[in-house]
Amino acid sequence: MHSPTSPGEADPSRSDHTIDITGEVCPMTFVRTKLRLERMRPGEVLSVRLRGEEPLRNVPKAARDEGHCILWIIPEGSDHIVTIRRA
Prior knowledge:
single chain, alpha+beta, Translation Initiation Factor IF3, 2 helices, 4 strands, 28% helix, 30% strand, globular
């Protein structure tokens, strides 16, 4: 997914918070992401750097299941940047 979820979305380089979970394995990848999201205000944007197929599947799905909006998923070398708007 390289495009915004709706027209007029902010560009993917803009986020209020960032977290790097490239050294984590599931389920800790989403646990760390969830803890960060819980400390944010509704509407704030979190960029998550992750690595591997399992986190790439699980983190966006779990965030959606919690009611958050996935704005972008952008490959960056061997990592991906998942940008999430807190519900």
